[in-house]
## 1
Amino acid sequence: MAIKKGDKISEIVLPQISGSEYSTKKLIGQNYMISFFRFASCPFCNLRIHQLVNQYSEFGIGFTIVALFDSPLHNLIKHTSKHQAVFPILADEENKYYKIFGIKKSVIGVLAGIIKRFPALMKSMFVYGNFPIEIKGSMLTMPADFLIDENGIVVEAYYGKDEGDHLPIEKVIEFSKQEPENK
């Protein structure tokens, strides 16, 4: 079942690449984004993490991103630590939250992403070295992004149509600068 605008999000608790457990409970009172990715060595996913890290200074004060990957922790550490993200990157190897959020899988989405986003795929692999050699997780998982307000309510639910389709970064930046109503 898909999550939609107006739904209240329950707490997410998962291991993060730093080695500790992370809980979204600490985000109560601030706006944030939950972003679901594919497997850890996915070129499109690593390109998006790279973009989020590079543009993090453009986000509003107190805003954060919670990135979830469909991968075991050891594999996630291997493929995402290089980004030195200032936001949590979490391993949901059992797909617990992927199921709760209704994250989709699609063969057509994978093929469409390769065709539609071929230049981005090549950039990720040959400029940034993100080769999908070690696939631990589903290749069919589609990305999804959720903008969450300070009360844990979904302001926007965006389910990607292909393997590289995320909520436009401009929308994320705009939302990040909105002042929580509780402040």
## 2
Amino acid sequence: MRAVMISLVTLAMAVPVGARDKGKRPQLDLRAAPRVTFSPAVVLLTAELKGGQDLDEYYCPAVEWDWDDGGKSTHEADCDPFETSQAIERRYTAEHAYPQAGTYNVKVTLLRGTKKIAVATTSVNVRAGAGDFSGGGDDSQ
């Protein structure tokens, strides 16, 4: 039994890294730049599908951004039909302006029709800048 387990471990280690992802779903990661800033602020958000296989489910999704300030944005692309040799788009970016201080939990959702296929969140901390008396983004709240 022990020899079989060692052989399985050795076999798993011998498989190339890319082959391990075959058949796996990509994971969505979301980053903000800057993550901490002063108001008024424009923040660049980058959502990226990492790892996994180029599955047709992830081809040409609608991208919904929830800015956590009462606003949402949706982008729906008009794409040609998926071909198995075609790579999926893995990076989506958007900019958003935050005029007032606050901590905002931004969420990006990839949709295929009405089905959520991937979701990621990150937070943006906007501190009160010159002339912003909103009081948000302050640690004393």
## 3
Amino acid sequence: MHGDKIFIDTNILIYAYDVSAGFKNATAVRILSELWDSGRGVLSTQVLQEFFVSVTRKIPKPIDDQYAANIVRDFLRWELVVNDGDSILEAANLAARYRFSFWDCLIVQAALKGGCDILLSEDLSDDQVIESMRIRNPFKS
């Protein structure tokens, strides 16, 4: 992961703020810390939207809305891919080709649009390559 741009899927971001997630929390915190230091992290509007809803409503110990909004504000300093109409159509094409869910394809599309070499996610097939981007599950031993 030396000079590569790395896209972070929503689940990684959520685990970093879900103290009940055990080793996944520690792993996610380490990954995000490294990406803050290196400046190589990439996110999308979808990831930040899903993150906000999940950490304020869905995790075992939800965090305050204002605190979550401040976290999102901090992450807006990262490179951010905005999902537009073309992104939606490209995600639909990826869904037809790879048989992933549309929402997962929107994540893949954002990572590709952001020029990422690696997509970190636990929801997709570890070590799969799509175009020139490799999917990695950081929780797989």
